[in-house]
Amino acid sequence: MLPRACRLVLACSGLLALGVAPADAREGSRLPVAAEGRTGVVATESPAASRVARDVLAQGGNAIDAAAAAVFAISVARPQSCGIGGGGFLVYRSASGATRTLDFREAAPAAYTPQTLDPPGLHKTFTGHLPVGVPGTVAGMDAALQRYGTRSLAATIAPAERLARRGFRIPTSLVGAMRQNAARLRLFPAAAAQFLKDGQPYAPGETLVQPELAASLRRLMRGGPAALYGGAIGRRIVADMRAARPTNDPGLLTLADLEAYSARWLAPVTGTYRGRDVVTMGPPTSGGVAIVEMLNLLERFDLRKAGQSSADAIHLVAEAQRIAWADRNAYLADPAFVPQPTAFLTSKAYADARAGEIQLERTTAHAPGRLPAAAGARASGEETNPNGSTTQVSVVDARGAAVSLTCTNEQEFGSAVVAPGTGILLNNELTDFSAAGTANEPRAGKRPRSSMSPTILVEDGRPILLTGGAGGSRIIMGALETIINRVDFGLTLAQAVDAERFDSQGTSTLEIEDARVDPAALASLQARGWTLSRLGEYGVRPRIQLAGIEPRTGRTAGVSDARSDRAALVPRAVARR
Ligand code: GLU
């Protein structure tokens, strides 16, 4: 579809040929099409995984069944982003409105200390055995299925096992990741054998077969999570941690660490935004707290009147980010180790106290809020790796139950380690810890702070927007902006994910997809003290997946971000594309 401005102005055709929307266009040249139906929807950035989840929905499976099946399929078909060697977070809302969140984040081995990652070594390049945390995905999906699913773990893994055994056509995105990570993958023979062909990246459309991963998936189908958390798969991983061949960078993960792991059910972080309920994920991710804090601040301003893509609206949102980022960087970490000021930071009273700091004329630096008690008030430290990988799964089922789930290996292709004989790519999540002495310092058993932001927005008792995405610390603003686009600017799901993104990372430099923003608005932002980092029409991250029930029609809709592979699907019988 043409950007709205171009449907009226034929002279835009030259710009479109260059893939650039004009500065006054609201819709970009890659505006996605929403998948709509009445029996559920799934949005991921893996076509193979979305097909698996769609089939689960079509066969009467619920949102948890479909999301878990999608995650296992992503482990096979989008291995660079997320897998059974990684972890993540899940936000669940039942059809009747019960909410719960699940933390299946990776944990540090018992031998970890605040200084473990200090000495030089391969881990400084986000690679190798040392930054591997206890994988959480299998425990997480098992816990989710046990509590809310209708399918067995084995049945949920089965489609992924078939994909690994029979192979799938390699999408361009995976080829790109293979190319970018070929040198890292070549360090580890089992990884090179699995993801490279004679040491070189595959070509798009070739078939990737992963027999050792298929065998591990069959072990999990037969033996359950115990096959990993102490069983045959776990023993192979631990043996590789010790041998660390050929890189000689031993990891600290032991069988006892695997046996001790469990996913954690947590109460969600909640808030309201202009009459809608926000249900999101709390620490150890910083995403949900930052989102609710920013929404509370922004509720005090009339963004709709300011106008979509206006200098005032962009400035106010970015300014709210600078306040929330100060708090995020100072306080947020694993709640099992550091008392978290979640209730304080997400309260309306806190927003009342701080909204007055926002000046419309000028961007300013903001200090972290003063907590009522000093407990836990230690700096969390800066980002060590703001880009990374990750992926989002958004599912609504026929009854209206909703799952917003984000999972990751941390870096694209994680640590690049595949333990021989397992086919399982291991995470490098522990690089998300910060320096010793900070709230987010490494500790035995601790889970590092994340930016993942799976969130559900509820209106009149219905989940109207499931959001979340990939892209390291840029995930948070990507998710926030889709909420604002939907609520304040009244955009459709497709428009909400397509609209321009911006992110200050808490500084006075504003990364902005500038091609659709009026030059006068950009100049006004500069006049307010922002240094612009211009990204053109579409940046490469964050990559967001949306789903929800359309309030007016009651139909489910899903849409995938055009900044990545698009795979929003509804069960076939009701598809309308
Ligand atoms: N490790 C990151 C986090 O938990 C996600 C990976 C990424 O996209 O950077 O926030």
The separation of the N and C termini measures 13 Å
Per DSSP E runs of 2 or more residues, the count of β-strands stands at 20
From the spread of the alpha carbons, the general shape counts as globular
* List of distinct ligands in this structure: glutamic acid
Number of helices: 19
User: What is the CA-atom radius of gyration, in angstroms?
Assistant: 22 Å
Determine the mean pLDDT: 93
**How can the largest sheet be summarized?**
7 strands, antiparallel
Which percent range fits the helix content?
25-40%
Coarse structural class: alpha+beta
Strand order of the largest sheet: 7-4-3-11-10-2-20
Low confidence ranges: 1-13
How much of the sequence is in beta strands?
A: 15-25%
Briefly, what is this?
The chain is of the alpha+beta class. The chain is built from 19 helices and 20 strands.
Description:
There is one protein chain. By secondary structure, the chain is α+β, with helices and mostly antiparallel strands. 33% of the residues lie in helices and 16% in strands. The protein contains 19 helices and 20 strands. It has helices at 4-8, 13-17, 47-58, 63-77, 137-148, 153-166, 172-186, 189-195, 211-223, 232-243, 255-260, 287-298, 303-306, 311-331, 342-345, 348-355, 475-487, 493-498, 519-527; strands at residues 35-37, 40-44, 87-93, 99-104, 168-169, 207-208, 264-266, 269-273, 276-280, 391-397, 402-408, 455-459, 462-467, 469-470, 502-503, 509-512, 531-534, 543-549, 556-560, 567-569. Strands 7-4-3-11-10-2-20 form a 7-stranded antiparallel beta sheet, with helices on one face. A hairpin with a 5-residue loop joins strand 15 (502-503) and strand 16 (509-512). Helix 3 (47-58) runs antiparallel to helix 4 and helix 7 (172-186) packs antiparallel against helix 8 (189-195). Mean pLDDT is 93; it is low at 1-13. The structure holds glutamic acid (GLU). Residues 388-390, 408, 410, 429, 432, 450-452, 470-472 line the site of glutamic acid (GLU).
